[in-house]
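FAQ

Q: What does a record look like?
A: Structure on top, sequence underneath. For example:
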């Protein structure tokens, strides 16, 4: 059959520019060895392995950088000192192509590794900031924020992914001597449903293994 590619990254950039955001240089994430996860038969080939029907592997992901209108914030000197990135990390992170092994799609259709989230959180926030992930999935971004001294808010429409994120966050928080407060809420107009869902998330057991 036909294989179509929709350049969603380009469409998103156009929309963001229309509403007043500044398009900055994106990061190109080379998902090492991840394309084989994305085909049902586990093959390294997409399409047929001979010309002209072979299809270039889908192992690149665009990480778009958008700057909102307004002035620059003023972090405290303490925040700056606690958020420093050393020279070796700076040289590796602030380049346009990242070679990071992709994550398995067994638990989530669009996962990304913790290393990727940790880099971005450290690059574009200070300690004590609040990181917002409106599509938090299994909670990878929130784990990265927790490990780097940031607060975080995560939202997901799928209750199962919310429970998965809660399990990982509880496993992470177990070693922090209760210094981090986990709050679970459900966005709904029905108070009874809100309480029920909150209790369900509070009662889930921590994951056996931390997110790696």
């Amino acid at each position: 059959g036909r294989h179509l590619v929709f350049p969603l990254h380009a469409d998103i950039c156009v929309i963001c520019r229309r509403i007043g955001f500044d398009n900055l240089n994106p990061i190109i994430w080379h998902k090492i060895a991840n394309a084989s996860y994305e085909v049902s038969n586990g093959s390294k080939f997409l399409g047929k392995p001979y010309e002209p029907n072979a299809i270039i592997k889908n192992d690149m992901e665009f990480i778009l950088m958008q700057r909102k209108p307004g002035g620059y914030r003023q972090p405290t000197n303490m925040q700056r000192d606690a958020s420093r990135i050393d020279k070796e990390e700076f040289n590796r992170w602030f380049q346009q192509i990242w070679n990071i092994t992709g994550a398995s799609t067994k638990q989530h259709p669009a996962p990304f590794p913790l290393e990727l989230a940790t880099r971005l959180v450290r690059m574009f926030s200070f300690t004590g900031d609040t990181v917002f992930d409106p599509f938090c999935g299994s909670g990878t971004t929130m784990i990265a924020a927790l490990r780097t001294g940031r607060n975080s808010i995560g939202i997901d429409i799928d209750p199962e992914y919310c429970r998965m994120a809660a399990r990982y966050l509880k496993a992470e928080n177990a070693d922090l001597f209760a210094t981090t407060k986990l709050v679970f809420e459900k966005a709904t107009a029905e108070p009874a449903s809100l309480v029920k869902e909150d209790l369900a998330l509070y009662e889930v057991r921590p994951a056996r293994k931390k997110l790696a």
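Q: Is there anything notable about this one?
A: The first strand starts at residue 22 and ends at 32.
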